[in-house]
Amino acid sequence: MPYLIAGNWKMNGTLASAEALAAELIATVRGAAAQAEVVLCPPAPLIPAVRAVTKGTAVAVGGQDCHTKEKGAHTGDVSPVLLAELGCRFVIVGHSERRADHGETDELVRAKAEAALKAGLTPIICVGETEAERERGETTTVIARQVTGSVPGGATAEKVVIAYEPVWAIGTGKTATTADIAAVHGQIATLFAAGRGGSDGLRILYGGSVKAANAKEILATNNVSGALVGGASLDAAEFSRIIESCPR
Ligand code: 13P
Question: How many domains does the chain have?
Answer without folding.
Answer: 1
